[in-house]
Amino acid sequence: MSEKLIGLITGASSGLGAEFCRQLSDRCRKMILVGRRHDKLQGVADELKAAGVETVVVCADLATPLGLTEVVEKIRQQGPVQVLVNNAGFGTLGAFVDTDFDSQQAMVDLHISATLRLCRAVIPYMKDAGGGSIINLSSLASFFPMRDVAVYAASKVFLNSFSESLQKEVAADNIRVQCLCPGYTHTDFHDRDSFSGFEKSAVPEAMWMSSEAVVSESLAMLDGAGEVVFVAGEQNRAMIAG
Ligand SMILES: NC(=O)c1ccc[n+]([C@@H]2O[C@H](COP(=O)([O-])OP(=O)(O)OC[C@H]3O[C@@H](n4cnc5c(N)ncnc54)[C@H](OP(=O)(O)O)[C@@H]3O)[C@@H](O)[C@H]2O)c1
């Protein structure tokens, strides 16, 4: 990625999204931050402003058509976006048939529909600008069919496949696509109400990563033009290989 671009990060209010904002701040002159919790978004925006980055905070629910339309309009007004991180996401815990269907649908709308819509909105601008970078947040869960996270894992499998195909379509336009698959990462993810009942302490400490480490691996791999579907963490890559 070249210097001083315009970036858009969804789910910028906490965890991996907030960390992407921090680690992309030296490459971006302006960053558009999207999420629903205004106070948290503003906190991240204040950090970026202190680092000399212009910020645009967009409070929007990306699982809704209205929220998506607002963000697409912001792209038109505040772009051209050359760095897009489709990071917003959440999980639910429980058997598919026992879990509130509206939450499952919202997950599909957020992970899949919002990612597609935002990719579709920015790629023409990236082509005009001579290049760009897109990071779609998948998960290690996309490699392992698991009970209690059926829709979550399937939505991330979609992103792996979509990102690989998209990369083939836009490579000639100097647009780099990465589908980042983190394993267990310390963020707000496992503390959300939708994921209640998850026993964090049951996961060995060696399996956890910090959001700083995941994001720094992701950006290093993006700069090095590594594989499209990228699994963060040596321990996670070993698990996939095994
Ligand atoms: N943590 C892990 O172990 C892990 C592992 C693999 C993959 N991931 C993926 O990493 C991504 C980031 O999650 P995280 O771990 O950083 O968790 P997090 O701290 O809970 O962050 C999730 C972000 O998504 C935003 N978000 C959720 N629903 C939204 C909606 N409807 N509209 C707009 N924004 C929404 C949240 O913002 P608001 O609440 O302010 O709306 C928040 O900024 C997700 O896609 C997740 O699937 C996480």
- In the CATH hierarchy, the architecture is 3-Layer(aba) Sandwich
Tell me the Rg in angstroms.
Answer: 17 Å
Small molecules bound = NADP nicotinamide-adenine-dinucleotide phosphate
> What is the third-level CATH name, the topology?
Rossmann fold
SS class: alpha/beta
Going by CATH, the homologous superfamily would be NAD(P)-binding Rossmann-like Domain
In the CATH hierarchy, what is the class? Alpha Beta
* Shape type: globular
Total DSSP E strands? 9
Q: Sheet bearing the most strands, described?
A: 7 strands, parallel
State the order of secondary-structure elements, H for helix, E for strand: EHEHEHEHEHEEEHEH
- Number of helical segments? 7
Average pLDDT level: 96
How many domains, in number, for the residues? 1
Helix content: 40-55%
End-to-end gap:
33 Å
Strand content: 15-25%
Describe this structure in words.
This protein is an alpha/beta fold and 242 residues long. The protein has one domain (5-241): NAD(P)-binding Rossmann-like Domain (Rossmann fold). 45% of the residues lie in helices and 18% in strands. The chain is built from 7 helices and 9 strands; from the N terminus they run E-H-E-H-E-H-E-H-E-H-E-E-E-H-E-H. The strands form 2 sheets. The protein has a 7-stranded parallel sheet, sandwiched between helices. Helix 1 (15-24) packs across helix 6 and helix 3 (65-78) runs parallel beside helix 4 (101-129). It is globular. The model has no long low-confidence stretch (mean pLDDT 96). NADP nicotinamide-adenine-dinucleotide phosphate is lined by residues 10-17, 35-37, 40, 61-63, 87-90, 110, 137, 139, 182, 184-185, 187-189, 192.
